[in-house]
Specification:
Length: 231
């Protein structure tokens, strides 16, 4: 069964999330602060974290860094602040998705299932790829089997979701992909959850990629979406 670690210091929210996820068939563990979250992740080896940003001990960003340093785990972050800086930092340390409080339990469950599907799909695809299969676009080189990216021969570290997004753009290089298409292909989101929050998640990851790869590689088509440049 799929195990989820809920990291939330507000007991009312923690109990509500735990009850709903248990009712959905997940095995649920709960931690209320940063140090106990890292310890629980190491001991229980959850399949996904639901992680609040503001925690005692140390915050959710540090929890995410420490957990991801040991093994890749999908992360859905929760925050009480609707702030782009929080979003970009959270995505930058390895979060896959981001929900602002208050949120509906229905949407949380849908986001969790989408992240898990994407994670499983990426693992399955990686196991089937030819070890020599490399995508190239201008100075960009994407080793799909090794999940490594180089720009002008320099290796660049990407989070798992950043890699999936870049690979999707590279497979359709030169073609403008709408945010809805990216949400469907990379995040496996249904249209019902691809509104403003979905737009922010896509935009946040594109900004993170530009910081790491260079601003000129991904072109914005205003009001439409993004395209990977091929020149």
């Amino acid at each position: 069964m799929t195990r989820i670690l809920v990291v939330e210091d507000e007991p009312t929210i923690a109990r509500a999330v735990e009850a709903r996820l248990a009712a959905e068939g997940f095995v649920v563990d709960v931690a209320g602060d940063g140090p106990s979250a890292v310890a629980a992740a190491r001991e229980r080896r959850p399949d996904l974290l639901v992680l609040d940003v503001m925690l005692p001990g140390f915050d959710g960003l540090e929890v995410c860094r420490r957990v991801q340093a040991e093994r890749p785990v999908p992360v859905v972050m929760l925050t009480a602040r609707d702030d782009e800086t929080d979003l970009l930092v959270g995505l930058g340390v390895g979060a896959d998705d981001y929900l602002t409080k208050p949120f509906s339990m229905r949407e949380l469950v849908a986001r969790i299932r989408a992240v898990l599907r994407r994670f499983d799909r990426a693992a399955a695809a990686a196991s089937e790829r030819d070890a020599g299969q490399v995508l190239r676009a201008g100075p960009l080189e994407i080793d799909r089997a090794g999940r490594r990216v180089r720009v002008d021969g320099r290796e660049v570290h990407l989070t798992p979701i950043e890699f999936e997004l870049l690979e999707c753009l590279a497979r359709h290089r030169g073609t403008v992909l709408t945010r809805s298409v990216l949400l469907e292909q990379v995040w496996d989101w249904a249209d019902a959850y691809a509104g403003a929050s979905g737009t922010r998640v896509v935009d946040g990851h594109v900004k993170a990629l530009r910081r790491k790869l260079g601003a000129d590689l991904i072109r914005t088509v205003h009001g439409v979406g993004y395209a990977l440049e091929t020149s």
